[in-house]
Amino acid sequence: MWGSSLGALLILLYVTSPFLVVFFLLVFLSVRRGRQAEKLLNTSKKRLAVAEVLWLMLVASIWTAVNVSSLSWIPAGVGDPALAVPAAGEQVLEVEAFMWGYNLSTTTLEAGRPVRVVAWSTDTLHSTGIYSPDGELLVTLMLMPGMREQVLLTLEPGVYTLRCLEFCGDGHAFMSAVFTVAGAGGG
Amino acid sequence: MAEEMSLSSLTLLPRLMFYTALAWFLAGGAAGLLMVLFHVTGAAAVPAYYEALTVHGILMTFGGVFQLMAGLSLIRAGFCYGKPIRGLLFLSLYLLLNISLAMLLASALAGVRVTYTLMFPLPAAGAFKGLWSIDMLTLFVWGVVLLLIAIIALYPASLAKILFFGKTKEQLVMERFMGTLSPSGMASMLPFIFVVPPIGAPILATAALIGAALLGVIPLTGISWFLEAVNFNYLFWPWAHNLMEAMGIMAIGTVYWIIPRYTADVEREPRLYSEKLGIFAIIFYTVAAAFAFPHHLFTMSSTQPIGLSYVGQLASWLTGFGAAFSVFNILATGWRYGLKIRPASLAVLLGFSLYVTDGFLAMQLGTIGWNYRLHGTYYVTAHLMTILIAVTLIWIGAVYHHFQLLRGRGDDEKLSYLHIILTTVAGFGLMYVMATMGVGGVPRRAYPIPFAADIQITLLTAFGALLALAQAIFIANLVRGGGVAAR
Hints:
Chain B: InterPro entries: Cyt_c_oxase-like_su1_dom, Cyt_c_oxase-like_su1_sf, Cyt_C_Oxase_1. Chain B: Pfam families: COX1. Chain B: The chain crosses the membrane at residues 21-41, 53-75, 87-108, 139-157, 203-227, 239-259, 279-298, 310-332, 344-366, 378-403, 415-435, 455-479. The structure holds 2 protein chains of 2 kinds. Chain A is α+β, with helices and mostly antiparallel strands. Chain A has 2 domains: 5-73; 81-182, Cupredoxins -  blue copper proteins (Immunoglobulin-like, Sandwich), CATH 2.60.40.420. Chain A contains 3 helices and 9 strands. In chain A, strand 1 and strand 2 (101-104) form a beta hairpin. By secondary structure, chain B is mainly α. Chain B has helices at 7-10, 12-41, 46-81, 88-109, 122-128, 134-164, 184-187, 190-194, 196-214, 224-227, 229-258, 275-290, 306-337, 343-365, 368-374, 378-401, 403-407, 413-439, 454-480. In chain B, helix 11 (229-258) runs antiparallel to helix 14 and helix 12 (275-290) runs antiparallel to helix 13. At the A-B interface, helix 1, helix 2, helix 3, strand 5 and strand 6 of A face helix 3, helix 5, helix 11, helix 13 and helix 14 of B.
C-alpha cells in the first residue's frame, strides 16, 4: 500500500501537513514573542538544545522508517540478479521504442505465466510506462539508446497500455501501444 | 576615483541582471500561460505547444531563476565584502548569459525541441531525422556552450573574485558580517565556486567538442564516444543535478542571511540561532547532494549497477537531513530573537516553507520503489515547478530587502504582501494538484494530456492564473512603488 503511487501521496500529506501547521504556528508565536522583550530575554538555551535533539531524532526516525520500508516497495522483477536467468515458463514481450511509437513482438500474452518485458530505443531517450487495465502505472523503464532494459512481471488478464514518459519531441503524447493478457482459455 | 564609487554605478550590473531576469520571466511566463491555455482549450497545434514548452523551460530556468539568483548574490557578496561589482568579468557574465539565451531562444523558435534537462540525444536525433535543421542544431549547441561557460566558469569566478580577492572598501560594506565566511549565508556560495566548476567542466568540454564537430572543425567520428547517450548522460546528470542543488543551497543561504535581519531583538547584531549549525548544514547538504544524482537513473535498473541506485537513494535522503538542520536553525532564530514580518521576511519564510515541503516530495522521487511508479509523471513536474517557485520566492524576499536599492524608492507594502501570499497559495496549489495527477500516472510534457480529471485541469489553470496574477501585482509594485521604504 505505502509503496504504491497513492501511498506516496498519502505519506506526502501525512508528513507535510503537520510540518506546515507546526511551522506556521512557530512563526506566529515568534512574531508574538518579538513584541514581548522580556520573553526573549528569558529564552532558555537549554530548552532549545533539547528541542534540537528531539527534532533531529524525529526526522531521523521518519527517515529510517521510510528508507527501510522502501526496500520492499521496489517492484518485483526490477534490479533482481535473478533476472538474468529465464524464469520457468516465461514469455517475452519485446518493445522497440522509436519517434513516435512502439513495435511490439506480440500483442497477446497469457495470464499465469511470467512476462519478461525487454525494451530498447532506436533513436532518442524514451521510456515505457506500463499501465494496468485499471490505469495504474505499474512500472517505468527509461530507454536510453544502446541499452536494453528488462523487467519480469506477473500480469492479471486485461488490456495493458504502454506510454512514453520521457519527452521525445512533438509526437510524445501519442506514443503508446496496447497489449492484451488473456486469461486461461483465451478469455 | 571616490566619485566613481557611487552606489548606483557599483550595482549597475546586478540591477541589469535583475531587470533582464524579469524580462525573461515575462517571456517564459507568457509561454507557460499559453501552455495552460492550450491544455484548457485544446486549440493549439501540437508543434505550437511544444515550442511554448521549450521556450518556457529555457527562459524560466536560466534566463529567469538563474539570472535573478546571480544578480542578487553578487549584490549580497559585494556588500558583505565591500567589493565593487564591475569590470570585464562581471560584464562578460551578463553578456554571455544573455547572448546564449538569445541563441537558445532562436533555435527553439526555429523548431529545436528540448527540455531544460536537454533529453540528450533528442537535439541530435531530431536534426538527423530532419525535424529541425543542422544549422539550428549548431546554433543550439553553441548556445549551450556559451551558457555553460557563463554558469560553470564566469559566475563562479565572479563570486570567487568578490569573496577571495581584492581589498575591502569600507564605504561599500553595507551589511557587515563577522569572520570570513560567516554567517552561513556566505558559505552557501561555496558550492558554486568549488563544486559546480569541476563537475561541470567535462560536460562543457563535451558540448564544445560536439559544437566543433558540427562546424566541421573536427570529424564527428572522432567524438563518437561522447555521442553515446549513456556516456553523455553520465557526464550530464551529475552536473545538472548539482547545479540545481547549488541553486537550492544558495536559496538556503539567502534564508540564513535575511531572517536574522528581521528579528525583533534590535539590540543585538543580526545572527542566527547557530552559525555553526548553519555552516554544518550547508556542508552536509553539499556533500550529500554530490552523490544524489543517480536517482535520475533509477528506472534503468537492468543496465545500471543497482548499488549506484542505493547510493542515489541514500544521498537523496541525506540532503533532506541537511534541510532538517536548517529548518530548526531558522525556527529557533525566530523563537530566540523574535520575528518581524515585513515583505522580505514573509517572502523568505513562505518560500522556505514551500522549499522544505517540496524537499520531502523530492526525497520520495529519490526513493527507488516510488520512483518506478512516479518517474516521468506529473509528480516530477510538481517537484520541478515547486522548487523553482520556492527558490524564486526566497530570492524575491531578497528583492524586497533591497527594493530601495534596486528601484530608488520603497515598495507598496500592501501590494508586496498580496504578491507574496498569492504566489505562495499558487505554489502550494500547483504542487498538490500536480502531485495528484502524478499519482494518477498522467505523463508529464504531454500534449494533449492523454487522460486527467477535469477538476485537475481546472485547478491547474486556476492556480496557474493566480501565479500569473501575483506576478502582475509584483510588476505593478516595481513600477509604482510606495515611497520611502520603512525597514
